[in-house]
Amino acid sequence: MIKTTLESYVQNGTTLNRGCCRFCGSTLKHTFVDLGMSPLCESYVSPEQLNQMEAFYPLHVYVCDRCFLVQLQEYVSPQDIFTEYAYFSSYSDSWLQHAKNYTENVIARFRLHSYTQVVEIASNDGYLLQYFLAKGINVLGIEPAANVAKVAIKKGIPTVVKFFGKNTANELAADGTQADLLVANNVLAHVPDINDFVAGAKILLKPQGVITMEFPHLMRLMEGNQFDTIYHEHFSYLSLLTVEKLFAEHGLTIFDVEELSTHGGSLRIYARQAEDTSKPISQQVKELRAREEAAGFSNLKHYFSFGEKVKETKFKLLEFLISAKRQGKTIAGYGAPGKGNTLLNYCGIREDFIDYTVDRNPYKQGKFLPGTHIPIFHPDKIQETQPDYLLILPWNLKNEIMSQMSYVRDWGCQFIVPIPEVNVYS
Ligand SMILES: [Zn+2]
Asked: Percent of the chain having pLDDT more than 90?
């Protein structure tokens, strides 16, 4: 059962001011985009729950006028979301390959060996650390979800079941554990207390150590109109400029950056202790910083353009769907990802437009999408019902899905891709 943040914080005996920037503390006054009320995107509904009340929380994203951090306020505490987590990283082949390539690169670049210590925050089921372990490098995982951590421990990966922050870092450092390489992938954007998290990273890092972190890049989100990647568990939307300020505030310096294609476009940053001048700041950092500045990321006005673009995308998608339904066409969905739920709830797309969706994950089959209550079936349902259109919800995998599902063209079915704006492929 998900508790609201307010309840959790009252229980913990502390209070939380929802109206302040989670980095610099300024009052939040400016809307980046308001997607209305939405249920938690991973709360799939079982048949027994269909007639029960469902919790909806605001998906109202603000931008801070002092540090330009784009952020969602904390409505649901991570303790309630992440302590029993259904996502196992090792289920995704392409993610495993991404992890393996990364491992090989950093081992060579930073000369990691059997005396060095790699620590990963949010180490999940050990999908990444297993590759370091295989090379005889010391590894330690930190993972709050006990069920997922258990899988890592079984693989021989020592894992501390904890949330990460200053407290955990101090405990580990007191025990003599500090990192030569500290990794945190897809977690910086998901922590409510981002200052405590980065301060903890500083404590856990050796004087000559390296931090690498990956997170979705705000510039790509805005360019690609990826508003459906906004959901309640994703608290911060990050540019290089803002992350540099955040790290500098905590005595860390970003010395290199790479742009990745994962999650619709991500950054991988490399950071070090501010005092460690052995690693000069790369040309890539200077170049991306300049590109973000030229695009307007240090100017509040730039952030106001997004809301209008999002509305226009909604109108275009609805215009297309209404016209298809008026012509008597049938539409099915493909996939039941978290991002699909933001899109469908915001646009008000239910069974009036989409008869059903399908997903390969057996955990989701037989359930219903949160909020919209569109039923989720096994992909075989598509062959049985032969719809006129297939709406691809995980648009970031559109090429893979269109080639996998190419047999639907036999009966003239066409693919609809909703983002960055509605596009039809036959
Ligand atoms: Zn701020």
From this structure: 84
Ligand 1 centroid to residue 187 C-alpha, Å: 19
- Ligand 1 centroid from CA 25, angstroms: 6
Same domain, 189 and 107: yes
CA distance 95 to 114: 25
Distance from residue 182's CA to the centre of ligand 1 (Å): 26
Structural domain containing residue 331 = 317-425
Among 349, 363, 426, 330, smallest CA distance to 393 is for 349
321 and 287 co-located in one domain: no
Query: Looking at the domain assignment, is residue 2 inside a domain?
Result: no
Based on the domain organization, do 325 and 286 belong to the same domain?
A: no
- What is the CATH number for 165? 3.40.50.150
Residues of the chain with pLDDT under 50: 1-17
Same domain, residue pair 287 and 138: yes
Residues 336 and 398 in one domain: yes
Query: Contact, 62 vs 33, CB < 8 A?
Result: no
Count of CB atoms within 10 A of residue 255's CB? 20
pTM score, whole prediction: 0.90
Give the distance (Å) from ligand 1 centre to CA of residue 33: 17
Structural domain contains residue 78:
no
Q: How far is the CA of 141 from the centre of ligand 1 (A)?
A: 30
Burial grade of 259 (CB within 10 A; 0-12, 13-18, 19 or more): middle
Q: Ligand 1 centre from 275 Cα, in Å?
A: 25
Q: Please give the distance, rounded to the nearest whole angstrom, from the Cα atom of residue 30 to the centre of ligand 1.
A: 11
328 and 275 together in one domain: no
Tokens 């603000």 correspond to 62
List the strands of the sheet with 30-38, edge to edge. 30-38, 57-63, 70-72, 236-237
Convert the pLDDT of each residue in 335-373 to its tens digit: 998 889 999 999 999 999 999 999 988 889 999 999 999
User: What is the b/e burial string over 319-354, where b = at least 16 CB atoms within 10 angstroms of the residue's CB?
Assistant: ebbeebeeeeeebbbbbbbbbbbbbbbbbebeeebb
Cα-to-centroid distance, 63 and ligand 1 (Å): 8
Instruction: List, as ranges, residues with CB under 5 A of the ion ligand 1.
Output: 21, 23-24, 26, 64, 66-67, 69
